[in-house]
């Protein structure tokens, strides 16, 4: 199910990106000049009238992955390559667990009745997940408690809150038990 979702999402993003003026056409030689003569792709991330900041952790072989003591391991392959005579580059991505890297859990992940009712990640409203957000930098020696939440005095109308926590400082190969 998650592979199908990723395939559909990838196809939809490719189609959407091709029609959005924020993503210009690539020049015929596919190069973009840089100071050190290495090609650098132009990235313009726009959503509505604002800019998108990608808060995802980069996937690496040793990033934490649920159920693995050694990290994520190899996750990306190139079974077909233009360098080897194929008509296109075809990449293959496999994760040991969807609990790898930055992700959103489906409503049915922790509530069995939601799972039975089909509340998968594709039922999440992307307009809720994307847009202006309040960033709260949590002191490294604090937990996010009800008292802390009340003390934040989050203004009315704020729909999204991001918490920068000690989790990033503890980043390692294993998923911590305190999550």
Automatic annotation (TrEMBL):
The keyword Secreted applies. GO terms for biological process: L-tryptophan catabolic process to kynurenine. The keyword Cell division does not apply. Residues 1-18 form the signal peptide. GO terms for molecular function: arylformamidase activity. Its main location: secreted. It is found in: Secreted, Extracellular space, Extracellular matrix. Keywords: Extracellular matrix, Secreted, Signal. Gene3D superfamilies: Putative cyclase. Pfam families: Cyclase (PF04199). Belongs to the Cyclase 1 superfamily. This is Cyclase family protein.
